[in-house]
Amino acid sequence: MIKSSYRLFFLVFMVLGIPGIALASGAGGGNHLDLTSSWVGYASLLIFVVAYGFVMAEEYTHMRKSKPVLLAAGIIWGIIGWIYASHGFTHAAEIAVRHNILEYAELFLFLLVAMTYINAMEERQVFETLRVKLVCAGFSLRKIFWLTGVLAFFISPVADNLTTALLMCAVVMAIGKDNVKFISLACINIVVAANAGGAFSPFGDITTLMVWQKGIVSFGTFFNLFIPSVVNWLVPAVIMSFAVPKINPAACEIDVTLKRGAFVVIGLFLLTITTAVSFHNFLHLPPMMGMMTGLAYLKLYGFYLKKTHKNGKDSPAYDPEKADERIGDTVAFDVFRNIARAEWDTLMFFYGVILCVGGLGFIGYLGMASQVMYGDWGPTTANILVGGLSAIVDNIPVMFAVLSMQPDMSMGHWLLVTLTAGVGGSMLSIGSAAGVALMGQARGMYTFGGHMKWMPVIALGYGASIAVHFLVNARFFDGVPL
Length: 482
Prior knowledge:
Low-confidence stretches: 1-30, 313-328
Shape: globular
Radius of gyration: 24 Å
Oligomer: single chain
């Protein structure tokens, strides 16, 4: 599937390529090599396709997705560096790869802080408390379908869509038990809602974060995608809701309490987001500097929690049977434990992808793709196809490729590609991290085939969100040809 998706682009690259290795004038007045139709270019393309094939097969091979792309990035840039050095350009490749590493470093530090806060809130029982309250509320399956969808839509703009989807799926599975039909429908709804919710927020998805950090779309401008995102989720949700079984599960009683300092950690996370936005908007500094400053907030508060920690076993009211509920009193808060629990495989995967795509761009393929997609096809067609491609290939390399191309587009078209890259992955269960994770969590109940059954209505929502974007955000297109 991955090979067929890229075949069209690769054929275009090969047809348009100039035979041999040629010299071309580069940015800044220097020289660079045109490797698009040489063995170097073809080999690099093949290496990336093979590596990404292993990424797509992670569920079956059980090999972490970061491993193949890390190796591919090293080989691609190694070949490029060797060719450039042999032609006397000893620093050209070095300068290019340092630029890619800088972009990755900003993304890495931003995500590391966000992941640390999410882990801290999870450790303080924030998500578990929410899950238990939903499970024990005694709502009908149809009400749970809508509640988990709404929560997924509104939590994912702040937390990542993967964490949000896993939390909501846990609720659905606890309530639905062995009701395969309900769990399948609810999981599809959660995936669509989480991806749609992340599309209108700079923090909701990696792609929106990349666009914001690049300085192309301002923080407040992203929220103009709110209505199109709502439409993207509501259209399939309304249709699927009629298929949800009309069953009322029995209520339950489970007592789970928040650990000490949970609300403060939530407040510090919101303050950290505010700091990141302020650094970017008012001080014109990278958002990751504001996030790293916010990490200091959590570290200092963690120091306070540790200093004021009292072991629950020393309390006369200590009950061994409720030790799990009092774990916050028996184990001191440790911010470095939360940092260690970050998704390191995902962070390393981003490194490999950014360096791989950066290498292909340095070879010359992204410039050629930009000419074909945005020059010949036009930005509207190209940006809609980006969403379709992100349903098959992870949206991270797709969006990084678009940002590296830097097509000359209006703000309306940049918002369009942000929307399509964010929600396009909902059309297939393998199109987003949320979908892939839920297939593992609800194994045998939420499947690729079950999701495919509802792809037409999801695609209907995709098309409707694009149409609504052109309608409500027409002012951002400024008369630029569609």
